[in-house]
Amino acid sequence: AQRVTQPEKLLSVFKGAPVELKCNYSYSGSPELFWYVQYSRQRLQLLLRHISRESIKGFTADLNKGETSFHLKKPFAQEEDSAMYYCALSDGSSNTGKLIFGQGTTLQVKP
Amino acid sequence: EAGVTQSPTHLIKTRGQQATLRCSPISGHTSVYWYQQALGLGLQFLLWYDEGEERNRGNFPPRFSGRQFPNYSSELNVNALELEDSALYLCASSRELTNEKLFFGSGTQLSVL
Question: Tag placement on chain B: N or C end, fewer CB within 10 Å?
Fold first, then answer.
């Protein structure tokens, strides 16, 4: 079954601490992985995609096919990083238009 | 650029009624996606429209339907409403035939009483 698992509902860290938001997936094909973020009172928006291999707002994520993971990392958390983060997966070999989302993790960065 | 717009913001219906939700994509985007975000269930893929055609649908009953108009705006219709249809319905748009980057609207909160 196709599934995205974000094991933590809430992750609370202090400003300046490293952050790792976990994402594991179950998919038999060739997946494309994404991280979407929703800041307070804002719309859900794309943060980054694994195929871009980019760093956005200091966040990076590496696709580990052996561990079927796509964890989101940032070395030094900022208060403005507080938001809801969703990991999502799509079929990389055929365009179905469908994204499978995890349940989301709320990141709380304390001052 | 103007973002994805959805209307109404809130909708209250009673069980058995029909609900119509509307979405206008970003200018230049031809694909429209609908997602349901029910409490505790996360975002669930509902429908995908592109160039006026339904391209894919999620695991939802046929009473969830929709359409896309020539101007690429879209409607989601939910017939015979049930209590468990209460959810936030999100619309997203993207450039043609790709979900590499979705732009989401603010959603319509549907409450079924």
Answer: N
- What average pLDDT does range B72-90 have in this prediction? 97
SS3 A74: strand
CB atoms B106 and A43 under 8 Å: yes
Give the burial string for A82-109 (b: 16+ CB within 10 Å, else e).
bbebbbbbbbeeebebbbbbbbbbebeb
Q: B33, A97: Cβ pair inside 8 Å?
A: yes
B24-34, pLDDT tens digit by residue?
A: 999 999 999 99
Distance CA A67, CA B83 (A): 39
In chain A, residues 15-54 whose CB comes closer than 8 Å to chain B: 32, 36, 43-46, 49
